[in-house]
Structure formats: structure tokens, C-alpha cells
Amino acid sequence: MACAYLAAAEALSDGDAALRSEIAALRRSCETIGGGGGAVRRTRRQQRALARASREASRRRFEEAARILQGLVAERPDDTEARRRLALVRLSLAREALSVAESETPERRWQRVTLLLWAAADVHPLARTAAVYRDIARLERQRARVAAARGDRPTQRAALLRAFAADVSDPATLLALVRLEWASGRTQAAEAWQRILERQAPDAAELAFLRFRAQILDGPPEQALERLEAFASKFPRASALAAELRRLAAERASAAAARRAAEAAVELERLSGEVQQVRKELAERLERRARGEADRADGSGGGEDTGAGSPRGSAPAKQAQPPPETPR
What we know:
Helices cover 77% and strands 0% of the residues. The protein has a domain at 203-292. The termini are far apart. By secondary structure, it is an all-alpha fold. The protein has helices at 6-13, 17-32, 37-75, 80-99, 106-123, 130-149, 153-166, 171-183, 187-200, 205-218, 224-234, 239-302. α1 packs parallel to α3 (37-75), α7 (153-166) runs antiparallel to α8 (171-183) and α8 runs parallel beside α10.
């Protein structure tokens, strides 16, 4: 199968010596490869290499055609056929740039593709379709996410504004703008973008996400799971937004549990202090009672002592006298 593409690849090589050399090497390999599993694996590798060479040759031809057509349009601005062909070539270049993983970074590739799409839309109405503008908005949002990952908010805002200019009704772009303004502390701007979202996409999952998010944050934590299930059942395809709501509900429940645990710890400490105070007062009362009983016992014992046992001594008892005799 790989050898069947050699003729087409040679036609697309456009005199490129490096590509022709690679194609010749592939032809020799196809002629000498035998059967077996190892041969199948080698053929697949060669087929991928041939596809890469074909795409590279196609890209170069498209770029050359774009340069020629751009010069023709500059000379004859009213030539609609040249404009149509230039728009098609630019769209083809954008498609090739997205499908081929080149050495440049994804962000630079997205930038190049968006410029090609904007240029195609500017040159002819044929390229001014909803799909083209939707792709521009999607690529600009990807550039905004890369900028947000490195903390570059100005670049993120610029990319999102370009995405909004491409498609003013895209709910994903409007939600990203609302979040950006929240993160920047610009509450009024966030509310303004949310009003635009309500006007442009009243039934979008992104708008419902904002409303459910506010309910989870402001409502009781016990109802967060119920609201999450309601969102997931209403928007089954918005799995990413549902996952974010689930994470928010879990954080809300964890915060509520931590707050209750802290309040319980404070109450326990207060009760422990009260118990210690009661114990201290009870011990003091018992001690005072014991001292009083000891003092009373000492006082009653001192009145019964006699003789030498008394501290001051006591008078000796009088001797008994016989009764007086009666007169006869």
C-alpha cells in the first residue's frame, strides 16, 4: 500500500531534491521488502514517512500558491475568482497546519492558524462561515489557557477578546471571560459578561453552571449534592463543568465540616474549663468542711480532760464527809 503513493508523492515534490531522495529510498525499500511480521511493521513506518513527505510537499505548494494569488489580488482587487482561490488556499494551509505536528510550539501553531483563518475570511465571503469563526474562537481559547497556565493575564484577556470578536455568542468564551474578571477582582466586569451570556445563550450549560455555582456557594452545604445531580441530569454532555461543580461542592462540604469541627473544639475547651472550675470549687469546699469538722472535734475534746492531763491543772476533788449524827 505504501508503494502505491510514490507516484503521487513524486508529483507533489515539485522538484524538491530532499523529498525526491527520501521518496527514492522508500521506493527501493518497497522493492526489497519481503513478507513476515517485521516487513509489515517496516512498511507501516515507511507509509507514515511517505505521508509526512506528501504533506510537506503539499504545504509548500499551498504556500507558493498563496503568494501568487495574494499578488494577483493586490493587482486586481475586483477579481472574485482570485479571491475565492486565495481563501481556499488559506483554509487549506490552516487545515494542514492543524493536522501536522511540527517542531514549533502548539501556541505558535494556533497563532499561525488563526491568522490564516482571519485572512481567509477577510478575502472572500466563502470563508466567512460559522465553522471558521467557531474554530478561530476555539483556538484563541486554547491560547488563553496556555497564557493562564503561566500567569500571563494580559495575554489571556487579549486572546479571549479575540475569541469573542470571532464568535460573540460562544458560551465557552463568555464563561472564560467571566472567570477571568472574577480572578482579577473586577466584579462589575464579570457581571457585565454574565449578562451578555444570558442574552446570547440563555439555555447554555455555561450559564446554568454559573447559577448552580452561586447556589452551591451561597446555599447550605447539605443541598450541594442535590444541585449537582440536577445539573448533571440536565446537561449530561457538560462533564467538565459537572466535575468542577462536584469539586466545589466537596470543598464546600469540607469547609463546613472543618468549621463545625473548629466550633466543636472551642465548645469542648469551654466545657473543659468549666469542669475544671467546678472541680476546683468542690475541692475547696471539701477542704473547708474537713477543717471545720477537725476544729469542732478539737474543741469538744478539751472540756473532758482532768488532773495532770489538763494544760492548767485542776483543783483536787473534795473528800467525802460522813453525814451528821442526829441527836437522841
